[in-house]
Specification:
- It is a single chain.
- By secondary structure, the chain is α/β, with parallel strands linked by helices.
- It is 28% helix and 21% strand.
- Helix 2 packs across helix 3.
- The strands form 2 sheets. Strands 3-6-7-5-8-4-9-10-11 form a 9-stranded mixed beta sheet.
- It is globular and about 50 Å long.
């Protein structure tokens, strides 16, 4: 970890910081969307943005909520490193994995909000990957049913990633579901096929940031196979719940990773106001 700068509360940001990505879909007042002038493709899914906003999630039209401001702070150093060039360039720097030491710390919530926040950038597209293949949660959080995805691509040589990626009514956000469960998930995530897939994801689109929701580090072996191939790691720690021992052990297991960021989740600065402490 390069430094340990905590942001105990979100600073006030000027209106110019609220970057709005161009929208290819017209969103109505209920948060539903329709593709402007086109018939929705089989791989197109509508996110109910109004429902997500009501649940406290970051959305494009959700305004300057506390959560939205928090994730503006969280995403900035991640994007800076993802876009670095020359001597400062990071291998697979645009591949960001969100994990935790144990279940229940809010990693999926943070992964989805981080992807939503990055999707607001003017010149970036985001692919949100549910890589918690044992207990996939991304689609559930977004209010979508299970779909074929990552594991299906790894198991079927005839299946392309484009066959399972879901386009959404947030024009800059796509989703790669976890897909079917498999008893050899660890081996599949550590396979050459996965390495080739990650290389393709990282290099195919220069403006794409990929956010992975990973399994917890201390519970499954899949997490280690995945984290070791990422450019940046975000570890979510639940305030006043996760033990110091668990955090240290999780960090020890990924100490070979050079770029680790910590989100101290579910803390309170004062009654009624949640915030995310952030360490880089």
């Amino acid at each position: 970890m390069d430094s340990k700068d905590e942001y105990p509360q979100t600073p006030s940001l000027p209106p110019a910081d609220v970057a709005e990505a161009p929208q290819a879909y017209a969103v109505d007042q209920t948060g539903q969307a329709r593709q402007a002038g086109h018939t929705a493709s089989p791989r197109y899914r509508e996110l109910n943005l109004a429902t997500l906003q009501a649940q406290g999630m970051v959305t494009h039209d959700g305004g300057r909520t506390a959560v939205a401001e928090d994730f503006r702070i969280i995403k900035r150093p991640l994007l800076r490193k993802a876009r670095a060039s020359g001597p400062e360039a990071i291998r697979h720097g645009n591949l960001i994995v969100v994990t935790s030491a144990i279940p229940g710390e809010g990693k999926t919530y943070c992964a989805v909000n981080l992807a939503m926040s990055i999707a607001m950038e003017m010149d970036i597209t985001v692919l949100l990957v549910d890589a918690d293949v044992a207990r996939p949660s991304v689609l559930k959080v977004l209010g979508l049913p299970p779909e074929p995805g990552l594991m299906d691509v790894l198991l079927d040589d005839q299946l392309e990633m484009a066959d399972v990626i879901l386009k959404t009514n947030v024009s800059t956000l796509s989703i790669l579901p976890a897909g079917r469960s498999n008893k050899h998930a660890t081996e599949l995530l550590a396979s050459r096929a996965m390495s080739r897939l990650l290389a393709e994801i990282a290099s195919r689109y220069a403006d794409r940031i990929v956010v992975f929701d990973s399994p917890p580090l201390l519970i499954t072996s899949e997490a280690h196979a995945l984290v070791g191939q990422m450019g940046q790691v975000v570890m979510v720690v639940e305030a006043e719940t996760t033990t110091q021992h668990a955090v240290k052990e999780a960090l020890r297991q990924i100490e070979s990773c050079e770029h680790i960021h910590l989100i101290y989740n579910k803390t309170r600065s004062f009654p009624g106001n949640d915030y995310y402490g952030y360490y880089d």
